[in-house]
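tool=predict chain=A
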Amino acid sequence: MRCFSKCFLSLVILISGLCNAQASTTSEAPPLKKYVVYLDWFLNPHHAPLVIGLKKGFFKEQGLDVELVSAGGSEEGSKQVAAGNADLAVSKQSAHLVRVVNQRMPIVRIATLIDRPLECLIADEKYLDIHSLKGKRIGFTSSSVEFATLAIETLLKTHGLGLKDITLVPISSGMPAAFLSGQTDAIFSAYRTYELEDIRVHKPNVNVFYYEENGIPPFEQSILVAHKDKLDQPELKKFLTALKQSVTYIKQSPTESWKLYAAYAPEQDTELNQRVFGSITGLLSDMPEKLDASRYEIFAKFLGNSAILKEQAPSVDTYAKEINLGRS
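tool=predict ok
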């Protein structure tokens, strides 16, 4: 009888252990899905929503293991997405349209990080308007000389000038240094975040002329693109849901967000980057998934009137989409 009791007790323990093991197995969270996002350059505060999404665990909550990959420019990431080697890439509206039209890349804008141009023209404080730059030296650096030329032509034309009225000075590196040293009277294609913040440390009263206020239609400086054949993948909605959470958190808790960013990239924990991060906070799109198709149409016509596009731009819905984040 005693032997039977021992055997019965052992059997109960064994069954209990098996049940617990099964329960443990079934309660385990499913493995995270790898999700590769190419940046448009090295990591910087412009990518804040992506970093905060990682640090706060918003992507992980959606079942995504997001990997951020630095690149040598936005074209690299767009090519990786087009080839199916990456899920998303950071790009720029103007460059995106050129790649869709001229290079026939099968990519689509699916989200907006920064919904306005960061580029601007910065002039010494004695130049109160763009027309007063007649006869002056204007420096620039750009990965797209064609777009930079179109931009300065438009800025000048809006104020009654042409390229013949100024001297363009290509700058290989260090636009703030060239400007502050007097090599140029103004610079353009400069970012209102980095170059402007840096210059204002030394010359706080410089005059700034924003592209969208001086003849250039508003365009989105920072967007995310995906392959046009992968828009129905559930991971895309999950990513955008987490991205939206990240933007909301940054806007509600900018100081804590900066601390999280600096912890993720300690080599960037500088006073300048903190100022840049602060300025970026107010420029982030509140609803990154939303699309303003009319703005895309206007900007496409602007590029179409130049020699940048090899042919007429297609309809907006072929290269820019609004993803519905409602329950499917």
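The chain has twelve helices and ten strands. Residues 8 and 14 are 10 Å apart (CA to CA).
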